[in-house]
Amino acid sequence: MAFEVHRQHLPLFEDDGRAAATDDEHGRDRHYLPELPAEDPYAAGHRTCAGCGPAIQYRWVLKAAGGDTVVAGPTGCMYVANSTYLCTPYTVPWAHTPIASGGSFTSGMAAGYEAMIRKGRYPGPFPNIVVMAGDGSASDIGLGSISGALYRNHDALFVCYDNECYANTGIQVSPTTPYAGMTTFTPFGKAIPEGKKLPPKNLAKMMAEGHPHCYVATTTVGYPVDLMNKTRKGLNHVGAAFLHCYTPCQKGWVYQTSMTVELGRRVVESGLWAVWEYDPEERKYHYFHPPVQRPVTDYLAMQGRFGHMLPEHVANMQVAANQNWQDIGMDVPQNLRDLEDPERHRRLKEEEYSMPLNRGVGA
Amino acid sequence: MSVRGTHIPEHLRLPIAGVTPPPTEKEGQRLFPTGNFRFFRPVYRDKTPPCNHACPTGEQIQKYLDFVKHDRYLDGYLTILEDNPMPSVTGRVCYHPCETACNRAAHDEPIGIRSVERFLGDFGLNLEENPIKKDLPPLNGKTVAIVGSGPGGLACAYHLRRKGYASVIFEALDSAGGMLRAGIPAWHLPEEVLDKEIAKLTGLGGIEIRCGVRVGSDPGGITLDHLRTGYDAVFLALGQDVGRRLDVEGGRSRGVLGALEFLRETGLGRPVKVGRNVLVIGGGNTASDAARSAVRLGGGEATIVSLESEDELLIVPEDLEQAREEGVRFRPQHSLVRVIADGEGNVTGAVLCQARLAKDENGNVRPQISEGTEFEVPCDTILIAIGQVQVLDWLPESFTERGLVKADEYGRVPDDSEAVFAGGDVMRGPSMVVDALGDGKRAARDIDRVLSAQPLEPDGPVEVMPYERLNTAYFRHAPRTPVPLTPAGTRSKSQKVEVTLAYSREEAVAEADRCMSCGVCNGCDNCYIVCPDISVMRDARENGRYSIRTHYCKGCLVCVQECPTGCLEKVPELDFDEPDAVVRMETAFAPYDGAHAEQAPFTRQLIEDAIAEYDRSKTVQPNGRGVTP
Ligand SMILES: Cc1cc2nc3c(=O)[nH]c(=O)nc-3n(C[C@H](O)[C@H](O)[C@H](O)COP(=O)(O)OP(=O)(O)OC[C@H]3O[C@@H](n4cnc5c(N)ncnc54)[C@H](O)[C@@H]3O)c2cc1C
Ligand SMILES: Cc1ncc(C[n+]2csc(CCOP(=O)(O)OP(=O)(O)O)c2C)c(N)n1
Ligand code: SF4
Ligand code: SF4
Ligand code: SF4
Ligand SMILES: [Mg+2]
Questions:
Q1: Share of chain B above pLDDT 70, in %
Q2: Host H or E run for residue A338
C-alpha cells in the first residue's frame, strides 16, 4: 500500500522587495525587519573568508528552510571551506557531491525520499531538499546535471550561489564572470586590455526559458527578506525550483569585506543584475524595479577586479546595463544614456563615482 | 536516521575525524573559533540623536517615537514625562528646536516631532490616573520655594517631586501658568489643556501653588529672606512680564496699549476692547500673537509695523504663514514716530516713517530712521510689542545684571546659602517655553545635589549622530505628515478655536515611522541577519539586547556597515604597537603550540580521548570488530 506524501508549507515574510525595509500589517513604511525564524541550521564556526557573500546566502537559505531540511553541496568554496577535517557547520544532514553532479545527486535524494515515504519507510513530511552549487558548478561543469533535474521536475530547490568565478581553486574565470572581470585566467594585458571579453552567461533566464514548468527566481544578498521569501516559494513549489543568487566574494573581487551587502544592492541599482521571479503558472516574469538607478561606475569602482578598465570598457558596461534596464521594463534616464559614450569616461581608477557611506575596512 | 548533526559513517571514525563534535546552533562548530580572523570588533554604542540633543529638556525623542511605532503609547508618554512634565503644552506651543536639528531634514523633511509629542501628551491627559503617581518616592521632608508658576517654576516643582521634595510655588497673578496663560493666546494653547496639565502636577501631592502672592513687593508680604530662611532652597523663575515702553509723542493716548498687557488680560479672561484698525509695533512673536488676537477680538484689521525687514522678522515661520493667512498685514522697515489723538485723547492715527533695524555695539536696538519719509495712517488701537523686562528691585543687587538675574553654569545665583537658583526668561531674557522647562529640570537636579551634599557637575560630553553617518540606503523618501490646521476663515473669528490641530493615531504612527533612530539601536534586526558568521546574538529585539559572539565573529564589519542607525561601530581588536597585547585564540588545528595559535586544551583532550577509544576498539571483541561509541 502507498502512503501519501505530505509536504511542508512555509509562510512568507512581509516585504515590499526593497532592501531590508518592510511594511507591517498596517501597511506602514518602516525600516524594521519582520520576525525572522530563530533557527540557524548553518551554524557559526565555518571557515569561509570574513564577509563571504556565499556564506550569507547559505545562512539565509537555511534559515528560511528551517530544521527539516536536507542539503547537498557540490565542490566549491562552500564545500571546501565548510567541511575541512569533516567538521561541518550544519545542524541538518548535509552531503558533499562532486562538482558536476549536484543536480543528479539531488534528483536522487528527492526521488529517494518520495519513494521511502510512499513505502512507509520514512515518517515524513517530505523534507526540504536543497542543493547549493557555485556558479562554476551550476553554470558550467554541472550545468547538464542541474538542467536534467529541473527538466525531470524533482521536488527540490536548486540554488546557484554566484560569486562570478571559480573561487575555491583560486579565482578562475567562470561563465558568469562579468565582462572585464579580472580573474587568474583572464588577466588584463596588452593583448586583451579588458581582461575578459565575453559577456556573462544568463544562467537564470536559460533555466526559466529552458524549463518553463519550474519556479525560477533571481536575487542578491542585498535583500534578505526577498531572498528568504524566494527560498520559501521555491520550496513550497511542488516540483523543481531554481534560485540564482548574487553573492560577492571579497577575495575574488577585491573589495572591503564590509561591503558585501552593499554590493548586493548596488549591482541591482546599476542595472547589472536583474532581480526577478518567473511564475510557471502564468509563464510570466515579474521584475523588481529598484528605487535608485545609478551609473555602472558606482558599482565597478568598488572592486579591484575592474580596476584596469579603460574608458571604452566602462562605456560598454553602461551599454549593457542600459539594455538590461529596458529588458526589465524601466526607462533609461538621460544621464545614463549619455554615459554610453566612451568620451564621457576616464580610466576606471580615475572616474568619479559615489562611494557608499564607509564605516571602515574590516577583517 | 539522524536528522541533526554531522553523521559520520563508522568506517570514517578515525582519530581526528571521529572526534568531530556535531555543531549546534547555540555553540557553533566549536573546533573552529573563527574569531581569530578578526582585526576589528563590532561594538554597540548608542549616540545622542540631534533632536534629543537640541531639546533643552533632553527629551528622548527617538525612544518615544519608537514606542509610537510599536503602538506602545503609554510607554511613549512615560518616556516624555521623564524629562518634560507637560507634553500637551509643548506639543502645541514649543518652537521645536528638535525639528530644526532633525537629521531627517537632510534626507527629505524633518519629523513632525511636536505633533507626535502632542499626540502622546493628549493621550496622557485623557488617562484617568496619572501613571507616574504610583511610583513616586515618598516626600523626604524638604521643601523648596519657587517664585513664578510659568513653565520654569512648574517644571522645577515637578522634577523635585519626582525626587521626593515638596515645593511651594508663589505666583503674583490670580492663576498659575505664567506666560502659558498670560502670554500665549488660547487659540495656540486652550485654557482647558493648560488647566489639566497643571492639575496633573498639583495632583501628584507635595506641590502647592499660592496664587496672588507677589514676592518682594508687597509691604509686609513675603520677601526673599522669608524664602531663604523658611525653605531648604529657592528657585527664581520670574519670567519677564513687563512690556517695554516706547517713548513717542502721544504715547499715553487712550488706545495705546502694551501688547503683553493686552495678551495677559485676554488670557486671564478679561478681554480688552480693541478697535477695528490696529497697529502692532514690533517684529517678534509677541507682535504676531497680539496682531492675531486683535483680529479675532476686534473683527477688523491688524498691521504689524516693524523695523525688521520681512526676512529679519523674529516670528517663527509657521506662525508667520498662519498670520498672513488670517489677514494680518505687514509694514516692514518702518517705525512709529508719533501717535495722533483726537480732542478726547483717543487714538485716531499714527505717523510712521521708513526705518531700518540697526544695533549698537552692545546689541541694543537703535533704529535708523530715514528723515523726511513720514506719513500718516489712520488707526484706533496701537499695541506695543518691543520687548519685555522684569522688575528686580526687590532682589539683592548681586543677583542681577543688565536687567536679568545672573547665574553660573548651574543656574545658581551668587548667594551665601548656595541654594538659590534661577532659570527661564528672567535668567536668559526672552526665550522659549522649553528653555524654561529645561532650566526647571536642571535646577531640580542641582538643588537635589546641593541638598544632599553632592558636588555640582556639568553634563558629560555627548556624541551627536550626524546624518552623514547613517546608512541611508534603508530610509526611503517619505513626505512629512502635514499638521492639520483649522481653516483661516474659521479660526480668525474666534479667540478659542485652536489653530493647529492634532494628528490622528494613524498620522502619529506614520510620522513616528519616518524617524531614522539616529545613532540609537531600535532593534531593526539588520545586524542580526547580515552576519555571515551567525555572530550577532540577541535574546529580544530591543536596544541593549544585542551582542557580538566574539568567539566566532570574523570582523568583516558587514553588520557595522549595514546598521541603519550607526549605533554599531568598529573598534580595533589588536593593538599592533603592543605585540604582547595580541590575543591568540585557541584553535584545534594549530601544528604546534604558539605557531599562529594555541591548541585548545579541550580539543587536545578530545583527541587524546579519541585515540584511547580507538585503541580500545582495536582490542578484539566477540564479533571481531571494534565497537564505536
Ligand atoms: C506673547 C508671548 C507668546 C509666546 N509664545 C511662545 C510660544 O508659542 N512658544 C514658546 O516656546 N515660547 C513662547 N513665548 C515665550 C515663553 O512664554 C517664555 O519663554 C516662558 O513662558 C518663560 O517661562 P518662565 O517660567 O521663565 O516665565 P513665565 O512664563 O513668564 O512665568 C513667570 C511667572 O512668574 C510670575 N512672577 C513674576 N514675578 C513674581 C514675583 N515677584 N512673585 C510671584 N510671582 C512672580 C509671573 O506672574 C509669571 O506668572 C511667548 C512669550 C510671549 C510673551
Ligand atoms: C570535475 C572537477 N573539476 C575541477 C575541480 C576543482 N575544483 C574544486 S572547487 C572548484 C571551484 C568551483 O567553483 P564554483 O562552483 O563557482 O564554487 P566556488 O568555489 O566559487 O564557491 C574547482 C574547479 C573539481 N573538484 N572537480
Ligand atoms: S573565496 Fe570568496 S566565496 Fe570563497 S570563502 Fe572566500 S569570500 Fe567566500
Ligand atoms: S530622524 Fe528621528 S532620531 Fe533622527 S533627529 Fe529626527 S527625530 Fe531625532
Ligand atoms: S557581520 Fe558578523 S562576522 Fe562580520 S563583523 Fe559583524 S558580527 Fe562579526
Ligand atoms: Mg563560484
A1: 89
A2: helix A334-338
